[in-house]
């Protein structure tokens, strides 16, 4: 199958499904489902298909750095969204994402240290995550909002995978968890339902990062021994199990 065709069909479908889940089961569940590797998993797959399995394995270290930056993005957006509108909140959160990524990359941690730091950061973020002041109001909807979300997400994926050969595995990995789906969920919930809905969405997403991180971390080991399909399948089961347990705890 043509890889470009896969990129422009798989990602839009994923974004549409996540949006529909959030509408049916609420913002927290939408965030939790959105944290699954629907975008990062395909990006890693495209790295492997276009650059080789070794490139994909080497990118996992950068992915851990990117996830730490994603946690910082979620916390910043949730906190700042209580004060200002979506655009300055988004720009500031992107700045925090970039600063965190640069700082962690400078520390040059190994894979195991990075993984443990991510898990600890998720737990710390949940401990101090902003609390919604009121229940979310009934959602407003923009005309054609699902197609808009689908197009934006697809363009992000095309950009990141297109630059992979130039950036190399480490920086490509850092950009893999870039808040593509997260930004879309945050912006639309912020615009249409307000800060409280955004906080619920991003808190659900941060909860899901426990499984998301494990899925991507396992690829550094599974891809050395198994096929892509089996590696992704085993890690996806682990991801789903962790998400179920985490959602019951938090």
From TrEMBL:
Record key words, sorted: Membrane, Transmembrane, Transmembrane helix
Transmembrane in keyword set: yes
Bilayer-crossing regions: 6-22, 29-49, 55-77, 84-104, 110-129, 150-168, 174-192, 204-222, 228-246
Keyword Membrane applies: yes
Protein name, per record: Uncharacterized protein
Classification lineage: Bacteria, Pseudomonadati, Bacteroidota, Cytophagia, Cytophagales
């Amino acid at each position: 199958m043509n890889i470009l065709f896969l990129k422009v069909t798989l990602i839009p479908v994923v974004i549409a499904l996540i949006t529909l889940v959030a509408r049916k089961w609420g913002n927290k569940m939408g965030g939790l489902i959105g944290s699954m590797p629907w975008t990062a998993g395909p990006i890693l797959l495209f790295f492997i298909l276009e650059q080789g399995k070794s490139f994909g394995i080497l990118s996992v270290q950068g992915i851990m750095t990117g996830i730490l930056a994603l946690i910082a993005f979620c916390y910043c957006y949730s906190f700042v969204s209580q004060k200002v509108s979506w655009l300055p909140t988004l720009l500031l959160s992107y700045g925090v994402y970039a600063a965190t990524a640069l700082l962690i990359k400078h520390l040059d941690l190994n894979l195991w240290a990075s993984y443990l730091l991510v898990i600890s950061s998720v737990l710390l973020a949940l401990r101090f995550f902003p609390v919604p002041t009121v229940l979310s109001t009934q959602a407003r909807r923009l005309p054609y909002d699902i197609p808009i979300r689908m197009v934006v997400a697809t363009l992000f994926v095309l950009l990141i995978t297109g630059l992979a050969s130039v950036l190399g595995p480490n920086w490509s990995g850092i950009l893999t968890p870039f808040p593509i789906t997260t930004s879309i969920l945050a912006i639309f919930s912020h615009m249409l339902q307000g800060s409280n809905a955004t906080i619920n969405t991003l808190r659900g997403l941060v909860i899901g990062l426990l499984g998301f991180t494990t899925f991507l971390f396992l690829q550094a080991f599974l891809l050395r021994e198994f096929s892509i399909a089996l590696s992704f399948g085993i890690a996806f089961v682990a991801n789903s199990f962790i998400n179920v347990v985490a959602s019951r705890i938090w």
